[in-house]
Amino acid sequence: MRRIVRKRQLSENVFQFVVEAPHVAKAHRPGQFVVIQLEDEFSERIPLSVADWDPEAGTITLIVQVVGKTTRMLSLRQEGEGIAHVLGPLGNPTDIEKVGTVVCVGGGIGTAPLHPIARAFRRKGNRVISIIGARTKDLIILEDEMRSVSDELIVCTDDGSYGRKALVTEPLKELCEQGDVNEVVAIGPPIMMKFCAETTRSFGIKTVVSLNTIMVDGTGMCGGCRVKVGDEIKFVCVDGPEFDGHLVDFDGMMRRLAAYRPMEQEKDHRCKLELVGNERRGE
Ligand SMILES: Cc1cc2nc3c(=O)[nH]c(=O)nc-3n(C[C@H](O)[C@H](O)[C@H](O)COP(=O)(O)OP(=O)(O)OC[C@H]3O[C@@H](n4cnc5c(N)ncnc54)[C@H](O)[C@@H]3O)c2cc1C
Ligand code: FES
């Protein structure tokens, strides 16, 4: 059991947890993620990015948006309680090189994994311009943290309630037009990453995206996270999570992400695995 050391609510549906996980804290690199399992062997495994980590304290920071059952159950956990399993670090670290100017684009919860990546690019000597966006002011997270690792920070909201009233692609396009962007890293909802990649395509600027496909085992065995990248089928958990945004089949990825939505939304849906688990426990 991995103990929750600190919990903080960042917005209505977003929670930050500092969790004891010394093995991950020691080995983790920007861009990687963990798979957590809240309960025993019958509870769902979900992938989460590591927003920060402290090798001395042996802790990692997770930032979680409540979208369904497991993220809701996690949001109800309190300090002192635990998470049964934290598996990681998984996936490949971000390739951090000195390239010049890097634009880091974060949408909603995507700002959480972006923060350590922006910090690493800055530490490597790059000029970092960050753009963070959300639908409305309350959904902007980690503004101070992103400011502290960026040479310039642009905040956008769709409804204009804070910062600039724009989609993140607007300032991204302007920066590309100004002509000195060497690399873009975009992390957020698939639709946002798709349009960031479309924005940079005509400028020929390298664009890295971090994909949030559905995952099951996180080890390349189940095929749940497969995605088409160029002419190849890739597994996000072991080949990614980062890929060349100009090659990703975002439409196919979004279709796969939505595939289980009707079952999740079915009013009386009850997970069969849960039933098996209850039966085995005699409930
Ligand atoms: C590498 C990686 C890193 C991630 N990092 C984070 C993170 O740091 N913080 C965070 O809050 N979430 C993160 N996610 C997404 C997170 O794993 C899902 O939100 C979670 O699995 C949903 O589980 P659930 O049981 O609560 O919801 P479910 O009941 O499984 O799903 C509820 C709704 O969310 C959608 N959904 C399910 N899985 C995903 C997904 N992977 N991406 C987008 N939508 C999904 C479903 O289509 C459905 O509409 C990450 C995903 C990946 C692959
Ligand atoms: S999650 Fe199973 S292959 Fe990637």
- CATH class division of the largest domain: Alpha Beta
Per the CATH scheme, the topology name of the largest domain is: Rossmann fold
Q: What is the strand arrangement across the widest sheet?
A: 12-11-10-9-13-14-17
What proportion of the residues form beta strands (DSSP E)? 25-35%
Helix-strand category: alpha/beta
Outline type? globular
Residue ranges: pLDDT <50 for 5 or more in a row?
279-283
The total domain count is 2
| Number of helical stretches of at least 4 residues | 10
Report how far apart the termini are: 23 Å
Roughly how many Å is the radius of gyration?
A: 19 Å
The largest sheet, given as strand count, sense and whether it forms a barrel, is: 7 strands, mixed
| Mean pLDDT over the residues | 92
Total number of strands: 17
Q: Secondary-structure element order, as H and E? A: EEHEEEEHEEEHEHEEHEHEEEHEHHH
Enumerate the distinct ligands: flavin-adenine dinucleotide, FE2/S2 (inorganic) cluster
Structure characterization notes:
The protein is α/β, with parallel strands linked by helices and 283 residues long. The protein has two domains: 89 residues, Translation factors (Elongation Factor Tu (Ef-tu), domain 3), CATH 2.40.30.10; 158 residues, Rossmann fold, CATH 3.40.50.80. It contains ten helices and 17 strands. It has a seven-stranded mixed sheet with strand order 12-11-10-9-13-14-17, with helices on both faces. A five-stranded antiparallel sheet has the order 5-6-2-1-7. Strand 5 and strand 6 form a beta hairpin. Helix 5 runs parallel beside helix 6. The longest helix has 13 residues. Flavin-adenine dinucleotide binds next to strand 4, strand 6, helix 2, helix 3 and helix 8. Its cofactor is FAD; [2Fe-2S] cluster.
